[in-house]
Amino acid sequence: MLNINTFSNTRGGSSFFKALGHPLAAEKMKTLLENLQNKEAVLFYDPYDWLLPLSELYDLTGVKSDGYYVQRYEDFQKSFGKLKAQPITEIQSNNPETLFIADFMSETHLSQIGHLLPDTCQVYSFDDLRIPEDFLTSPKDYLSPLNFATNFAFFRDQKGLHTRLFTANYWTSYSGKPARAWLNLLDENGQVLATWQENLDTAGGSFIVDSQDVKKRFNLPDFCGQLFIHIIGSAGHDVVKYALDTYSDDGETLSCTHDANAWPADYYAGLPAPRKDEQIILWVQNSHPCPIPPGAVGLNPMGRDSERVFLEEKIPPFGSYPLDVSALLPTLHWPQQIEVFAGKHFVRPRYEVVRGNKRRIAHANVERTDLKPDPLLKSLSPYFGKGFILPAPILPWQEWQSEALPTPMARDEITMPIALLVYDSEGQEIAEHRFGLLKREDCPALIVNKVLEKSTVMTNAHYGHMEMVYDFEAGDEANGWLHGLFRYENKDHQAETIFGAHMFNTALAYKDQPFSYRGRPPGLTTRLFLSSGIKGTDTICHLIYPASTTWHKTSSTDLSLYSSDGQIIEKKRLEIPCGGSRFWRVSHIFSSQHIQEAGPGHYVIIRDTTCRLFGYHGVIDEKGRFSLDHMFGF
Q: pLDDT for 113-123, tens place per residue?
C-alpha cells in the first residue's frame, strides 16, 4: 500500500500528492533525478515530512545521501531509510555541497537556513517539479486545491467502441473568468498519445471530448487508456465532474458513468461478481508516475480477507490493465460481491460487464476505513424520521426489471439491518421488504418486481422508486454509509449504478447531514446536471423527492434547457409530490423546435430552491437499449 495521504474526511482531498504526481511534474522529475544521481552526496532537508511520499512515487535509491535533516523537534526521532533525523541547525557541520529541500517554497526555507550553508552549496527542491505558472489559479499558494483541479477518465476508441466525456463550464460560472482544460491522453502502457488544450471561455458552455474526434484530430491508432484532465482557472471547488458515455458503432454498447473521484483510496467495494453468462473486467488504471508492482492489487470475496488473491502483473506508470475478476476468483457469481484491495494506486475504478456483444460500464465505490458504527443513529427517529435514505428508481415495471443489492461500504461493517420501502410515483407506499440483519459476506439481491407482485396496494402508477433504509427492529449496527447497487434490465439490455444514503429534506442537521453540493448543512436545494444523449438517442431522467421528515407538499423544480454556448433556450416547471418521483424524457418536456435550436451539446440544469432532489440519468434508443447512472451537481 502506498504511504501517501490522498484524502481526509475532515479536510477533503490532498493537493500535495496531485502536485507530486502530475504528469508534467513526472516529466521534470526525470531531469531532477539525473542531476541528483550525479552528485557525490545529497543532504535532504524535510521540514514537513514530505520526503517519504516523494520516495513512494519516485525511485530515489540511486541518489547517494549521508544526511537527513528536519525542522520540528517532534521529528528528531524519525528516519528516512538508513538515515537518522538530525536538527537542521547541525547541517553546517556537514559542509554540504548539494542540498535537496522537500518543499515547493524553497526560497522561504533558504531565507531561514541560508546562513548555515556554504556559498558553493547547490540547492534543489520540489520547485524543480512545479507545473507552468500560467496553470495556477492561485500562484501565491502553490498547493491550493484550485491549482490542482484534476481528474482521470476511462477513455477508449477501439474496435468500434467509443467514449464521450461531457460536462459544462461551471468554473467560469463561479469566477466570471475564462478557464482552460489541459488534456493528456495516455495509452494502456501509460505513454502519451496526445496533449492539447481546450479554451473554456463561456460560462455554462458545453465541454465535450469525444474519443472519435480525438482519434481523427491526432491521427491515432486504436487506444484504450486514460484521459488526464487539468482545469486551469478552476473556481467554486476543485472537483472535476463529468458524465462519461460509452457507446459502439453497432449500438449494442450503450452505457454511462461519471467522474472518477480523483483521490486514490485503500479499498473499493460494490464490485459485483459476474453472472454465469458474463465476464466482468475491473479496469485497474494507475493514477501515479510509479509502477504498480506485482502483488500490490488484490481481490477477495466480500468479508473474507483470508481468501484475497493478488494480481501478479506489473502495471506501468499511468498504465491500464483489464483484470478479469474470474481469473482471480473463478468460483464467485452474482449476487456475491468483491472487495478491491487498491493500496491507493488508482482512483475509483470502472468495471465493465461483458455479455455476448454487449458491454456496460459502472464503477465501484470507496470503502471507508475510518468509519465505526454510530450508536446514536437508532435514537434519531423522533427528530429525523426515516433518517438515512438511499433512493433509487423503479423503472416502468411492465418493461423493466429493477433489482437491488445492499453493498457493505466500510471495513468495520459486520452486519447491516436493512429494509426496502417501495413507493409509487405519487409518493404512496405500496410495498415493503425487510432484509433483516444482513451479514457482511452474505447480502442477497432482491428483484423488486417480485415484491410488487405481492403488494396488495393497487395504484394507477406504472413506475416509482425504492428507498433502502435502516431497520432498527432487526439490529443496531449502522454507520450512515449505507450503499446499494441497483441493476435494471429491459429486454436483453442492462444498466447498473451504485450510490449511498443521505438524510433528505429536514430542517435539523446531524453532523454533515443533510448536505447539498455547496454550503453548510442542512442542504435543502437542488442543482443537477443532465447531459444530452449520443446521436440517435433520447435523454431519460428519473427524479426522486425523498424526505426524511415531512416537507413541502410538492417540489418547485425548474428544468432549464441550455444550448452548447450556455444560453437558456427553454424553461419548464415540474412539480413532484413529496415522497414521489417523475420519470421523463427530454423530448417529452421540451419542444423539438427548442431542442433543435439548442443544438448538439445541449444539456439541462435541474434547479430547486425548496428541497433537495435525487436523480438518475441515461439515454435510450428506438430499440429500447438504454443506460442509467446517478446524477451529479456543480
A: 999 999 999 99
pLDDT tens track for 400-450: 999 999 999 999 999 999 999 999 999 999 999 999 999 999 999 999 999
Say which CATH number the domain at 173 has: 2.60.40
Same-domain pairing of 344 and 409: no
* 285 and 235 fall within a common domain: no
d(CA 574, CA 576): 6
DSSP secondary structure string for all residues of 95-147: --SEEEE-SS-HHHHHHHHGGGS-TT-EEEEGGGGPPPGGG-SSTTSTT-GGG
Domain limit, last residue, from 258, 283, 310: 258
Predicted confidence (pLDDT) per residue in 335-387, tens digit: 999 999 999 999 999 999 999 999 999 999 999 999 999 999 999 999 999 99
Closest CA to 581 of 609, 618, 562, 554: 554
Structural domain ending residue among the three candidates 258, 285, 315: 258
Domain span at residue 39 reads 7-129
Do 235 and 279 fall into the same domain?
no
Helix (H) or strand (E) holding 509: none
Residue 30 domain flag: yes
CA distance 65 to 43: 6
Cα 264 to Cα 286: distance, rounded to the nearest angstrom:
10
29: three-class secondary structure by DSSP: helix
Q: Over the stretch 58-68, which tens digit does the pLDDT of each residue have? A: 999 999 998 99
d(CA 270, CA 498): 7
Residue 211 lies in a domain: yes
CA distance 609 to 613: 10
Spatial distance between the Cα atoms of 442 and 337, rounded to a whole number of angstroms: 9
- Contact status, residue 419 vs residue 469, Cβ threshold 8 Å: yes
Give this prediction's pTM.
Answer: 0.95
* Residues 115 and 162 occupy one common structural domain: no
C-alpha cell at 433: 421488504
Q: Is residue 336 part of a domain?
A: yes
b/e sequence 248-271, b meaning 16+ C-beta within 10 Å: beebbbbbbbbbbbbbbbbbbbbb
Q: Which helix (H) or strand (E) holds 346?
A: none
The pLDDT of residue 633: 87
Q: Which tens digit of pLDDT belongs to each residue from 606-619?
A: 999 999 999 999 99
Give the residue ranges of the chain where pLDDT is below 70: 10, 517
The CATH number of the domain holding residue 86 is 3.40.50
Interatomic CA distance for residues 473 and 475, integer angstroms: 6
My answer on whether 99 and 204 are in the same domain is no
Regarding whether 394 and 447 lie in a shared domain, the answer is yes
Cβ contacts of 450 within 8 Å, gap of 6 or more: none
* H helix or E strand, kind and range, residue 17: helix 16-21
Whether residues 247 and 291 share a domain: the answer is no
Please enumerate in sequence order all residues whose Cβ is within 8 A of that of 211, keeping only pairs 6 or more positions apart, or say none.
155, 156, 157, 162, 163, 164, 223
| Residue-wise pLDDT tens digits, 273-292 | 999 999 999 999 999 999 99
For residues 230 and 284, membership in a common domain is answered with: no
Whether residue 140 lies inside any domain: the answer is no
Please count the structural domains in the chain: 4
